[in-house]
Amino acid sequence: MTFRRAALSLLLFVLALVSWAPAASAHPYRLPGGREKDVLALFAPFTLGTEIAAGFALWNVSIEQQRIVVSLHETKGREVKLSLVHPDDDAARPDAPRSSSFVAVRDPTGDPDAEKAVAKLLEALARNDHGDLWIEPRPRAAPRSSGVAPIQARVAAYAAGQWGDLDGIVALFGFVALATVLAVRLTRDEPAWIRAALAAIVFVGAATRLWLSPVSFLGAWPWTRLWPNVRAVAEGPVLEALAARAGGPFYLTDVIAWTNFGYAAAMPLVLFGHATYLLRDPRAGLFAAYAVALLPQHIRFSRCEDAFVPSLVITSLSFALIHAWLRDPSRVFRIVAIACLPAALYTGYLLRPLNILFIVVYMAAVVLLHPETAPPVRRVIGVLVITGMGALVFPVFLSTNDAAVKAALFGPSWLLHTGRAFLVPKLFVLTDPAVTPPVLVVLAVAGAVLAYRAGERRLVVFLLGWLGMFTITHAFVMEETMRPRYHLHLVVPFLLLGASAVPWLWDRHRVGVLVACGALIAAPLLHRGWIQDLGYTEMQEHAFVQKAREIVPEGCTVIEYVGADAQAKELRFARMGARTGGDLLKDRYRVAPAFAPGVIPEVKIEKPLEELLRDPPACLYLYEGLPCWSGKSPDEAYAGTCSELRQKLDAEVVMQGEVPLVIYDRQNMPPGRRDGPNVTFWLSRAR
């Protein structure tokens, strides 16, 4: 099969996958959300935390789509679990205990005490179960009309992260498939060892990220933001089908981590295509892929909740398509590249509005680069495509980011920070040896010098201009803790400069390339401490709430103080308990904001706090987190409303954690405080 046929076949396969809507194969009955009290009433007189028999207590009742998982705990650590399923479920056995609505599924423990407690609980279930808990799923919404929505409304919806019917998993697969086609195209006439080395680099990069990348919050507004690429995965039909086969929904935090890992693992493959097209040598592309696969800065952010890593993938893919359009000798492949370019350009903008800066860099690439291979007509078409995309998104960018634009234009004092951004190693991450392996700095300088001497002046000006523009525009944020994240977008031109020196070194001083590769393979281990540094208060709170997630029983209510968060958006337990996938989206528990000064009327609270306290649910918890320290008066050591609420509930502390006050994002700094004395988090249960 020729390459053209293979490429077209792969693209048709991706198109078919996009249009595929998988259906769940499980039985049609579902458990409704919002009936936790009715489910807990099935076990009366036993409530959560009360002893049933022989020291075993009812510990957790997890309500999933098609089953209820009940956990019994004993003081010595023994645990028993049983599942209550619909009688039509494939797991239901004819001889298993049953009630009006459920069949109990479990494996015998051989423990007389455990069997006694289970039998007593099932007796209560049979006595209290009067049916009417199962429902059939509601019919899906009718297809939308074929009328075309106004382009402005559709663009605004996309800019808000509403990708319509596009599934996020399918989109990621499509990007990887396109990057694979590029790699196959670029290596078809190269020695076999290059293809084998590229495959090994992609594998090593993925394995290294699974091994070292921390799963935590490393961005800004981590408890509220849901980036468009993650939303498209969480709300897509593929995840829904996977959840149906898994027997329940997935935690949103897990979906975020695995989605970003998928993009991070694809980065070496994508950068290979970008670098090879730009530098016209697969050896340079191979080194760029190798460097990013082992780059500590990239590894650190590969499984966090931020959008910088996916942004690198999509923008690098856009560059690769631009270079393919300008210089690929195959007319068919040039058409494929220019046809796929608008989707990549637009997705890159959606992932991060500030990526509108790339419009300038894309235009510079079309105008400056590949003068010997790109005729004027290709340049004109490339400019028109990029200009059209810029004209499409620029009005939306201004309307949705007007506050940031005004602050940047009418408060230009941030430009004074630009000099510091270049000269201070902690602020210019590329020269900070704690973050960037020094061998890459040496290679970048050598690459710039060698390329300039070899007559590649356009290339050097392009890459240095790209680095300079992004360093200046990102000087708007000057916090040392946040700079490695913001400077991720400097990584690609930086590595391209270094990779441009590799062909020259390979032909004349090959030992230099081998030394550089040896230094980079040790970089993840040498920088392991920085990669996995989660010693900040926000990351410690993330770990605390994640651990508490398994302590708070299913269906409970958590009261959480939100401080000065007027919209009550920064709820820790709301994000940590959020789940997605399946016909019915159901969070692990309900979260009620408490004592937020000036909560705006638009905030929809299921039950006001005063009403909640007058008629408390059977299971009620209180969480006192970082807002109790940061959302307070400057003259207070601790928000008085937090401790007052604990006393009012007569709450018993079930989990406590004391961590140093080392703030990652300065907007969370307590008034009148600097990094210093410890802060404490409390999880309490109302008596």
UniProtKB/TrEMBL annotation:
Location of the region described as Disordered in the Swiss-Prot/TrEMBL record: 88-111
Keywords: Membrane, Signal, Transmembrane, Transmembrane helix
Signal peptide range in chain numbering: 1-26
Spans traversing the lipid bilayer: 193-212, 255-272, 307-325, 356-373, 380-398, 435-453, 459-477, 486-506, 512-531
Protein name as annotated: Glycosyltransferase RgtA/B/C/D-like domain-containing protein
Domain of life: Bacteria
